[in-house]
Amino acid sequence: MTRAAPRAGLAAFLAACLVATGVLMGALPAQAAPVFKAPFPCGHQWTYSHHSSEVRQALDFVRADGGVTDGTPVLASAAGTAYRHSQPSGAGNYVVIDHGSGWQTYYFHLSAYSVATGARVSQGQQIGLTGNTGNSFGAHIHYEQLYHGVGRTIVINGVSLAPYPGSYHQRYLTSDNCGRFAEPVGGRAFGFGSGQHYVAVGSAGTLASLSWSPESGVVQADWGGGVLTGRAMGYAHAGQRHVFARGRDDTLRHWWFGPGMSVPGLDDWDTVGRVVSDPTGFAYGSQQHVFYRNPDGWLEHRFYDLDTGRVTGGVWPGGRFVGNPFAFVHRDQQHVFGRTASGGLIHWYWWPGISPGTDDWGVRSGVASDPTGFSYGGQHHVFFRDSDGGLGHRFFDDLSGTFGGGVWPGAVFVGNPHAFVHRDQQHVFGRTASGDLVHWYWWPGIDPRVDDWGARGVVTGDPAGLSAAGQHHVFYRLGDGTLEHRFVDDTTGQIVTDNWGGSLAP
Predict the structure, then answer these.
(1) pLDDT at 238 exceeding the cut of 80
(2) Which of 9, 141, 338, 461 is 20 to 30 A from 433 via CA?
(3) Tell me, what's the pLDDT at 116?
(4) Nearest one of 116, 146, 93 to 239, comparing CA atoms
(5) Does residue 132 carry a pLDDT above 70?
(6) Please, which residues bridge with residue 200 across strands?
(7) 458 versus 120: which is more confidently predicted?
């Protein structure tokens, strides 16, 4: 069992603030609370407890679904403004989210922050990583809901979790906090705030940024950046969009855009002449990361740290590769996959305390495309087109320490697949030689299946997708260069299709 020790100093400080401002809690009528979601990823099951020494109505959460608690993303349980704090003798690294109307939530003992202080966050956005900092005796999420500084009984989805159990594994909570990605994700399609975004090289050779939000509808923008090539990618971090692409001069282009900016910023992260593949990357804690193949065929890495304001990086050893790498975060780990000239898989990995390592996951031949993958609960996965045109799959299970996988049946395809997680579901998209969309899907209790979402004979570029609140999406280029978009609504099960326009390069 992991439990947080009392934080008397923090409680005294809050009480003093309330007295000094003359606030009388009993006299305040409670404003309607947000509809709070669980503070951990969509589809995860955690167990919770409360102990009598807690100073407020807090709950401690640990994983109960076979995954590892330490390093799991901590998510905002409702939208608001996030503030970073540190109390080494008590709460450790923690985030407070101000939801307005007097409501706040607290998230203690983080191993890393994922947002800047003062950043606006949406429900389900990652704000940190679960940890054991401060006065704590094992990794867990210490979570609180407060109204005008006074702890309230925790309510999730409008249902009280009281009476609180005094120990773990008496009561459980499965998260439906699906407003944003459950794990940090980067790609051509990515979420930011309430919208969806797609970035690509336009027919003019500059960056085409297409987006949609309930407030704006579809927006088409040309972000410039010189003459580009290949595939762009982006992700959200610390209240900004970050987009990366390769220039034809083999130099990285990095755009960033956020609230208050009239035009995107642009720099090159000290990569002049170093980038000979499409970039890949992710947000990790307080850092933004990008990876690419360098002129010597090795994996090169750059990252920007919000706390130091510096770009650093280097070459990750382990072997040369061809094509384009693909990177994602799993727990507190960074994973990058590529393919060798002989068709083998190459996997680089890093976590705090080690130097980057490499292996092949037992796949030494047959990889015929760029890989794709994701983190899913206590597992991390990679997919690729095999030499027969089928969808090859390999995954590593943290709990058992074993590999699994095989070929997902149903279709032969061309080009590069794209995979992502939506709720408790795994989704992979590809395209056939005749221009049909291929969609493989799996969730617990079924075998992998395949359909086409009704897109037949029209797909001229590799598809890319994303998960959003209550929906999962796919984007692809049509023959006229415009961007077609389809999504499935979880509630109705209906497929919705529209066209975002634009003029995308083949």
Answers:
(1) no
(2) 338
(3) 86
(4) 116
(5) yes
(6) 208
(7) 458
Does position 465 have pLDDT exceeding 60, yes or no?
yes
Q: Residue for token digits 């009392």? A: 6
Tokens of 434: 């005749």
HSE value, Cβ hemisphere, 13 Å, CA-based, for 321: 37
Round to whole Å and give the CA distance between 254 and 230.
14
Question: Please, which contacts does 223-229 make with residues 24 or more away whose CB atoms are closer than 8 Å?
Answer: 223/255, 223/257, 223/264, 223/266, 224/266, 225/253, 225/255, 225/266, 226/253, 228/201, 228/253, 229/201, 229/205
Query: For residues 480 and 458, what is the distance between their CA atoms, to the nearest angstrom?
Result: 10
Cβ–Cβ < 8 Å for 133, 48: no
In angstroms, the CA 293 to CA 60 distance is 43
For 27-51, b/e burial (b = at least 16 CB within 10 A) is eeeeeebbebbbbbbbbbbbbbbbe
Give the confidence band of 440 by pLDDT, cuts at 50, 70, 90: very high
Task: Please tell me the predicted confidence (pLDDT) of residue 285.
Answer: 76
Residues linked to residue 359 through DSSP beta bridges, in sequence order: 347
Sequence-distant (≥ 6) Cβ neighbours of residue 262 within 8 angstroms: none
| Predicted pLDDT of residue 14 | 37
Exposure string over 227-236, b if 16+ CB within 10 A, otherwise e: ebbbbbbbbb
90-99 pLDDT, tens per residue?
999 999 999 9
Find out whether 459 and 415 touch, Cβ atoms under 8 Å.
no
